[in-house]
Amino acid sequence: MRTLQAFPNSSGSHPGRNFVLASAGRWTEVIAVATQWRQRDPAQALQADTAIAAATMQLGNLQGGMAQIAQYLERALKAPDEYPSIILLYAQDLIATKQVDKASELLQPLLTTPRWRFRWLQFSDSISDPATRTTWLDRAASAIPADAVTERIQLAIEYERLSSLNMDISLGEKGTRDRRCSSCCKD
After folding, report:
1. Which one, of 134, 80, 127, 83, lies nearest residue 108 by Cα?
2. Which of 11, 34, 92, 164 is most buried as measured by Cβ atoms within 10 A of its Cβ?
3. How many domains, in total, are found in the chain?
4. Could you give the CA distance from residue 120 to residue 11 in angstroms, rounded to a whole number?
5. Which domain holds residue 148?
6. Tens of pLDDT along the chain (187 residues)?
7. Does residue 90 share a domain with residue 113?
8. Predicted TM-score of the model (pTM)
9. In this structure, are 53 and 127 located in the same domain?
């Protein structure tokens, strides 16, 4: 905050400052710095609002975080590779508020690329209900091409992880079957 007080008209230090504060878990300060950033440089509003949303979510105000970035969601969905942080934050919040079906609706059209399929698999760890998590992984399985070996291995790892958490051997077998299929698809 001292840097901002010493150089009140400089917007250049805001992104770096937010990164340092976020790394230290100082979420209230992230919000304060990003709010000043947004006021001083309206052209950077999206980046500032993204920082505010992430910090707000970290402080437990999930609805507030969603509201902060909701105005950008339509634009982000039209150009997902330009605005991945908006989509990912929004989906993360939907999952955290037990709106997994809405998160699925949001992300499923993006499963056409490896980048988004990887993100989909990452989100599976955030889903606490075993049946819902299994359905989530099954959707990924149907979207991942048979020759996408790395993705198939990651999917198998996620099934194995879920299997060990729930002591459901059939999920582990599903992961093993998927991994076997991915090893050159010669099964």
Report:
1. 80
2. 34
3. 2
4. 34
5. 103-187
6. 444 444 444 444 556 666 677 777 889 998 999 999 899 999 999 999 999 999 999 999 999 999 999 999 999 999 999 999 999 999 999 999 999 999 999 999 999 999 999 999 999 999 989 999 999 999 999 999 999 999 999 999 999 888 887 656 565 556 555 544 444 444 4
7. no
8. 0.79
9. no
